[in-house]
Amino acid sequence: MIIILGFLTVCIVLLFLYGYFENYHLKTERYELKSEKLKKPLTLVFLTDLHANEHGRDNYQLFDRICKIEPDIICITGDMVVKNNNHTERVLAFMEKLGEKYPVYYSPGNHEIRLEQYDEYKKNLKDRGIFYLENQSVTLSEYNVNITGLDLPEFWYHKVWDKRVLTAEALEEFIPFDKEESVFHLLLAHNPEYFPAYGQWGADLTLCGHIHGGIAILPFLGGVLSPSLRLFPKYDQGLKKENGRYLLISRGLGLHHIKFRFFNRPELSVINLSCQVEKK
């Protein structure tokens, strides 16, 4: 019995050591999407949920990977910082390097809106050339792409027992839709839980984070636990399609409260959008 208990203890310790060090094994995931709406191909890098962590000192490994990809733009869906403001200067330094080299479009997550120095943080980003989108849109005419950044109030970040239902009509109160169907609409929205509303609102592709891949990813079951404490969330990670609309949920670049990842490596997302008709 003592030998069995000792063996189990060693296995548990090794499992948690694996889960901790998995945080530092960044994986580049590539996605291909086609749309006849685009005027020309667009390569974008998608970042989310860094939580002020590092991949290499001062995030040099992450920055180096991005540079090798040579994206046209960078899109960010929030939680790059932590709400207690720890190491925010590290994030700002990384944002400055990105902004010097690429157009960066950034929408907030729940940690940004909870920052005590939120206004100062936003100003620092904008001073570094970052397009910080709070329920705002920009149009990339060269590509025929409209990018909208969704800024949901804290009410919409909740635990599983506090039921929230976001409709497309309610979403339009935050971000009125321009109804131009010939334009490719890219929505940056931190929380993927409301994907049905995002699609009905008119987003051709929605980029989200927030779920951290579900902490652990199990075969056939997917991500185990969301930040709202929902078991096996429907929208956990990867590319989804519903009613002709796409959702990409990144596993994120870092973690906050639970510092373990099991079979769930941090993700640097690369999306290649091509101007072709999708095969049905």
What is the CA-atom radius of gyration, in angstroms? 19 Å
Helix content: 25-40%
Proportion of β residues?
Answer: 15-25%
Overall structural class, as computed from helix and strand content, comes to alpha/beta
Describe it.
The chain has 280 residues and is an alpha/beta fold. Helix content is 26%, strand content 23%. It is built from seven helices and 14 strands. The chain has helices spanning 2-21, 60-69, 88-101, 110-113, 118-127, 168-174, 195-201; strands spanning 27-34, 42-47, 73-76, 104-106, 131-132, 136-140, 145-149, 184-188, 205-208, 217-218, 222-223, 238-242, 245-249, 267-274. The strands form three sheets. It has a six-stranded mixed beta sheet with strand order 1-14-2-3-4-5, with helices on one face. A hairpin with a 4-residue loop joins strand 6 and strand 7 (145-149). Helix 6 (168-174) crosses helix 7. The longest helix is centred in the first third of the chain and has 20 residues, at 2-21. The protein starts with a helix and ends in a 6-residue tail after the last strand.
